[in-house]
Description:
- There is one protein chain.
- This protein is α+β, with helices and mostly antiparallel strands.
- The chain folds into two domains: about 1-85, no CATH class; about 100-335, Bira Bifunctional Protein, Domain 2 (BirA Bifunctional Protein, domain 2).
- Helices cover about 40% and strands about 20% of the residues.
- It is built from 13 helices and nine strands.
- It has helices at about 1-15, 20-30, 35-45, 50-75, 75-85, 100-115, 130-135, 165-175, 215-230, 285-290, 305-315, 320-325, 330, and strands spanning about 120, 125-130, 160, 180-190, 200-210, 240-245, 250-255, 275-285, 300-305.
- Strand 6 (about 240-245) and strand 7 form a beta hairpin.
- Helix 1 (about 1-15) packs parallel to helix 4, helix 2 (about 20-30) runs antiparallel to helix 4 and helix 6 (about 100-115) packs across helix 11.
- The chain is elongated, with a radius of gyration of 39 Å.
- The mean pLDDT is about 95.
- Bound molecules: 3,4-dihydroxyphenylalanine.
Amino acid sequence: MLETVKDLLQEVKEFSPNSEEEVEVFRLKFLGKKGKMNELFIAFKNIPNESKKEFGQAINMLKQNAQEKVEEFKGSFEAEEKRKQIDFTRPIALNNLGSRHPISLIKDQIIDIFNRIGFSISEGPEIEDDWHNFSALNLPEEHPARDMQDTFFIQTDPDLLLRTHTSSVQVRHMNNNKPPIRTLSPGRVYRNEAISARAHCIFHQVEGLYIDENVSFADLKQALLYFAKEMFGEKTKIRLRPSYFPFTEPSAEVDVSCNICSSKGCNVCKYTGYLEILGCGMVDPNVLENCGIDSNKYSGYAFGMGIERIAMLKYGINDLRLFFENDVRFLKQFSSL
Ligand code: DAH
């Protein structure tokens, strides 16, 4: 009898199925109601007492081994079967893809528009020194116009600050390049302002600079009219109002006709028919000289605009904070642009 159990143990050990059915046949043969195990447990009763221990251990081992085999192979062919049924040619389910941020979209549009009239990109550091952010731009220390931009200074080095405008990049670019210069500088800027629907301590600007011989205010106006039409539509008009910036003379602020009410007057344009979009002017000769450019030979224009401002006007967004909260319900709306 013990020999039979040993043979069965060997059989279990060697069992290596090729299909789910073979596992089931094996399970029934050993562990089923009419299977070997039950037969052996019945036979156990008639085993002489002195052999019971040895026989009992052998059939327990047999049962355990058979169960382990079934466990090992049960379901493994099923997974294999399923894998064979996968249709690899089926199109994948689309993941919830992200969308481009509206600030990036508008930034790229502005770059694209100015690229077409010959402007290339230049960039500069966000942590700037006093010279590039202020002094070189005709804003010497103690100049009252420094208060126009509430500045974050770096505590450990009073000469360093977070740039308050991208105009600092025009200084760097003029220092490192000879005219003709036609450059666009997009980037993040910082000001110590209370956060509200209309202001934030971080925002984005694009600075434009064109230096050559005989550059005139008419060139500036023409470039800005072209930009406004490309950005807001062919019917857009621009209006220049005299203004003051230390780095330009003369200086102007530029408004575009309100595309929400077609200049008839609405609450967005505060019933003026126009919306302010940027500051600009002819580069002050002092700035040219500070940057090593001969102001007798060269002249140039510069302009600077807030990307958030353009995005708000273009998309009808009335709260600046939305650009920084990154709520996906807001961002998702730009996924097709
Ligand atoms: N830097 C100005 C600001 O941040 C914007 C600006 C105005 C830039 C006139 C210019 C300019 O280049 O000519 O408010």
